Amino acid sequence: MKNDSKLMKTLPGLLLLGTLLSFGGCSLEAPDDPSTQINAPGTEDAGARFVSVGNSLTAGFMDGGLMQTGQMYSFPNLIATQFGLSQTQFTQPWIKTPGIGGLVGANVIGVLHFDGSGITVLGTTPATQVQSTLLLAATQPTQYHNLGVPGATLHDGMNAHNSATSASGANPFFDFINRATFFGNAPVSAGYPGPGGFVPVTFQSASQFYQAVAKGGALTTLWLGNNDVLGPATSGEPPLGFGNAGSPGHLAFANDYTAMLAMLAGGLAQRNNGLKPTILVANIPSVTSTPYFVPQATFSFYVTSQIGQPWPGGFEEANVQYVRFPALSWIATADPLTPIPAHFTLDTEEYASVATATTVFNQTITTVVNTINGSGLATVALVDANDLLANETTDQQRTHFLFLVGGGMSVAQAAAATVFSLDGIHPNSHGYGIIANAFIDKYNEINPAGEPDLDHVDPAALPWDPTYGQTVTKAAGMPGLDAQAAAAMDAIFR
Question: Full-prediction pTM beyond 0.85?
Answer without folding.
Answer: yes
